[in-house]
Write a structure and sequence with these properties.
alpha+beta, globular, 9 strands, 5-stranded antiparallel β-sheet, Phosphorylase Kinase, domain 1, about 15% strand, about 375 residues, Aminoglycoside 3'-phosphotransferase, Chain: A, domain 2
Length: about 375
């Protein structure tokens, strides 16, 4: 199979493509130095040294600022331009004003959402600071009740409904569209770089999406990574964070990301906290469809979701699990450690086992 067949795109590099010609392991080459961090904290009036949390594509630190916990994010200019980061935060501000619960960005002392530190030699990083979300992560499969899943689905719908009134201001960079979003771009680059094997199913998925209608009711800005690791919950109230992958996609893709995340959690906990069905949930239906329907119940309290949408949602779930499996091979190579490799193996095996429960892209 030719790489062009896998991509389904022309392979050009543009602002919205997040420098897509580079693969995920090449995106972050330079690490922030003490000088980068000192400059960043000064710009926000943070008087303590931030503590490192993690890095995958961005470098994340936690600190205390005026008796409040904040997260400091440094984004390599090789990963996202300053304009793209600013567009992300501008959309977040819109969502916040529309009542969507997000961990909001904090202006720097000069009054900007984004500041840049460093130079060509040491690396340029775009700095953003976010308030800590209320609550905590979901504490395992036993805590992921039908009620919480419905709340999760409703929050996704609130985000989509708020997005329909969003207009990108003149001069702002457009966030990537679905063909150029980070995960797919990394997979395509990984195929071209020999890090991952081309699979016909990826071309089938891209061709299927190219055939889908696009309208303001079904397509727009999405979070694109609304999995269990990217929100906190407090008394069934969900607060979203980590909008770095936000892009322009079908709204059902956002829902599929959540369905896949919840389904994998239940799969991993099947011996200790298996999915418990209600009397109304058909015994012959797969666990995956039960979970998808629970999300749809919550989503439909805010936005329309009809029975025919379930088929499309399950196709997006198939695409998502395929994409994450391939992306994991690119992003979590041997240099990421044994834990990451173990996760890739477990997740990959689960993804392959799902195929019999999901509709095919080509009938």
């Amino acid at each position: 199979m030719k790489n062009a067949d896998v991509a389904g795109v022309d392979g050009s590099v543009d602002e919205a493509g997040s420098r897509k010609a580079q693969n995920a392991r090449e995106m972050v080459r330079k690490v922030p130095t003490a000088d980068h961090l000192a400059r960043a904290t000064t710009l926000w009036g943070i008087n303590e040294a931030p503590r490192f949390v993690r890095d995958i594509t961005n470098f994340i630190y936690v600190a205390s600022m005026r008796e409040e916990t904040v997260f400091v994010r440094l984004t390599s200019d090789a990963w996202r331009s300053r304009k793209l980061v600013h567009s992300e935060l501008h959309w977040m501000r819109h969502l916040e004003r529309r009542g969507v619960r997000v961990a909001p960005p904090v202006d720097s002392l000069p009054g900007r959402l984004v500041e840049s530190v460093g130079d060509e030699d040491t690396g340029v990083f775009h700095v953003t600071v976010f308030r800590e979300a209320s609550g905590a992560r979901v504490a395992g499969a036993e805590a992921l009740t039908p009620s919480l899943i419905a709340s999760w689905g409703a929050q996704i719908a609130h985000l989509h409904e708020a997005t329909r009134s969003y207009t990108v201001p003149p001069g702002f960079a457009l966030r990537p569209d679905w063909k150029n979003e980070s995960m797919l771009a990394s997979v395509i680059a990984g195929v071209r770089g020999g890090l991952v094997t081309a699979e016909p199913e990826l071309s089938q998925a891209i061709a299927w999406m190219e055939s889908l209608p696009v309208s303001p009711q079904t397509f727009g800005h999405v979070h694109a990574d609304f999995h269990l690791g990217n929100f906190f919950v407090q008394e069934n109230e969900i607060t979203i964070f980590d909008f770095d992958d936000c892009c322009r996609h079908w709204f059902l893709y956002d829902l599929a990301v959540a369905v896949a995340s919840a389904a994998f959690l239940f799969h991993e906990a099947q011996e200790t906290a298996p999915l418990i069905r209600s009397a109304s949930e058909e015994a012959e239906t797969s666990d995956l469809e039960v979970i998808a329907r629970r999300f749809a119940v919550g989503y439909a309290t805010v936005r329309p979701f009809q029975e025919r949408d379930l088929h499309t949602l399950l196709l997006f779930v198939r695409y998502r699990v395929l994409l994450v499996r391939l992306w994991g091979q690119v992003a979590f190579g041997a240099d990421r450690g044994q834990n990451s490799m173990d996760w890739c193996v477990r997740h990959g095996n689960w993804c392959k086992s799902l195929r019999r429960h999901l509709p095919p892209f080509v009938s």
